[in-house]
Write a structure and sequence with these properties.
The protein has twelve helices and 14 strands. It is of the alpha/beta class. α3 links the parallel β5 and β6.
C-alpha cells in the first residue's frame, strides 16, 4: 500500500498536488492500494477502485506578507494532514506500507518523519519539492531558526529515501549530510498529458508584438526585479516589441501588476487556468518566461519548465546557471535566452533577441 500526502490536490490549483494525483492514479492502475491525502475547497472522501482520495477542507493561505498568519495556517493544516496519515496507517496493518510526503505544506515532511520513527515505523519517502527551512532563510524570514538548521537536517536523514527533483537538489542534499546512496533522482515531467485540445485562446496582444507568457505561481523564489527593470527599458528605450502576460497567482503577482500600472507598461493578467485548459493557454504565448533567484537554486525547481520544454517554444530564463533549469535548457531544441540575476542589460538583450527570433519566424511561416 502507498499513502501520499501533500497540500492542494485537484481540482484545487497546485503543481505539487497535480503531480501526486497522477502518481496515485498510476500506482492504483498498476494494482496497488493507494490513499492520496491533501487539501481542497471542501471535505470529501472519494473511492475510485484501488484509489482513495481524502480531501480536507481548507482556505487558501494568507498573503506571504503576513508571515504569522501563514505560519498559523501551515500549523493547522499540518496537524490535520498528519492526523489523517495516522488514520490511514492504522487502517492498514501491512507493515510494507509506504508513506510518501512532499515538501508542501512547509515542515509537514519533518512531522511525518518524526511520527513514523516514534509510532508508525513504516517506510517513508520524502519527495523534496521546496526545501524548508532553507527557502525561508533564502527569503530572509525566520533567521532565528538558523542555529537549528542542523536539527532539521538530522530529521531529514530519518527518511528512508529522498526523491530529488534534479542534480542541483542532490548536491544540496549531500551538502546537508544526507547519504548519497539514499537519494534517487526522480525528475518531474510535463503535467499535461493531452495536447490534442485545440480550443483557441485569444491572443492578448496584436500580431506585431511578441507575447511572453509567465504561467503558474509567481512567488518569493522568482527573480521578478531584474525582469521588471529590463521590461521597462525594453518598452521605454528599446524596440517595444515584447508584451508580458501573467497567467497564474502567487505572492509577487500584486508586485508585478503594481510595477506595470505605475509605469504604464503593458501587462495582460489572467487567473490560473485549470489543468485541462492549460494547453490552449500555453499555446497562446509566443514564448515562455522562467524566473529564479540565486539564493533558491537547488532548493526550488519550478515544475513549469517541463511543459515549456515540451511545447518547443522559445524560453527566456532569468536566474542562476547552477540551477537545473539551466541544465535542462541546454538540451532544449527551441531558442532560449538567459540572463543572470541582477543583469538588467542582459535581460533587456534577451527580450530584444526574443523579438527578433519570433517575428522572423512569423514572417517565414506559411499563411
Amino acid at each position: 500500500m502507498l499513502i501520499i500526502v501533500c497540500d492542494w490536490i485537484p481540482p484545487a490549483f497546485g503543481a505539487v498536488g497535480q503531480y501526486q494525483d497522477r502518481r496515485a492514479r498510476v500506482r492504483a492502475a498498476q494494482g496497488e492500494s493507494v490513499v492520496l491525502i491533501g487539501l481542497g475547497d471542501k471535505a470529501e472522501v472519494l473511492r475510485e477502485g484501488l484509489l482513495t482520495i481524502v480531501r480536507l477542507a481548507a482556505n487558501r493561505p494568507p498573503p506571504s506578507a503576513s508571515l504569522p498568519r501563514r505560519a498559523l495556517w501551515a500549523i493547522n493544516c499540518n496537524r490535520r494532514l498528519l492526523a489523517q496519515v495516522g488514520r490511514a496507517v492504522r487502517d492498514q496493518a501491512d507493515e510494507r506500507t509506504e508513506i510518501l510526503v512532499t515538501g508542501s505544506p512547509p515542515f509537514l515532511a519533518y512531522l511525518v518523519i518524526l511520527a513514523n520513527r516514534l509510532v508508525w515505523r513504516r517506510t517513508v519517502i520524502y519527495r523534496v519539492t521546496d526545501f524548508y527551512p532553507e527557502t525561508l532563510f533564502a527569503t530572509g524570514h525566520l533567521r532565528w531558526l538558523k542555529p537549528l538548521e542542523g536539527l532539521f537536517h538530522a530529521l531529514r536523514r530519518g527518511a528512508d529515501r529522498i526523491e530529488s527533483l534534479g542534480d542541483d537538489q542532490t548536491r544540496r542534499l549531500i551538502e546537508s549530510g544526507f547519504p548519497a546512496e539514499r537519494i534517487v533522482l526522480a525528475r518531474d515531467d510535463s503535467p499535461i498529458k493531452d495536447w490534442s485540445r485545440r480550443t483557441p485562446v485569444p491572443r492578448p496582444f496584436p500580431d506585431d508584438k511578441v507575447t511572453l507568457l509567465y504561467s503558474g505561481n509567481l512567488g518569493l523564489a522568482h527573480e521578478l526585479e531584474t525582469l521588471c527593470a529590463a521590461y521597462e527599458r525594453h518598452v521605454r528605450h528599446g524596440s517595444d516589441r515584447v508584451r508580458l502576460w501573467m497567467n497564474g497567482q502567487g505572492a509577487k503577482v500584486a508586485e508585478l501588476r503594481a510595477f506595470c500600472e505605475a509605469r504604464d507598461l503593458p501587462l495582460h493578467f489572467t487567473p490560473p487556468a485549470a489543468i485541462e485548459d492549460l494547453p490552449e493557454v500555453l499555446r497562446a504565448g509566443d514564448a515562455h518566461l522562467v524566473l529564479l533567484k540565486d539564493a533558491f537554486w537547488g532548493y526550488v525547481l519550478p515544475s513549469k519548465i517541463y511543459a515549456c520544454l515540451e511545447l518547443e517554444a522559445p524560453i527566456v530564463y532569468v536566474g542562476p546557471i547552477e540551477s537545473d533549469l539551466h541544465l535542462l535548457l541546454t538540451g532544449h531544441d527551441a531558442p532560449w535566452f538567459h540572463a543572470a540575476t541582477g543583469d538588467v542589460e542582459a535581460s533587456e538583450r534577451a527580450l530584444e533577441a526574443l523579438a527578433d527570433t519570433v517575428l522572423a519566424a512569423r514572417k517565414k511561416a506559411p499563411r
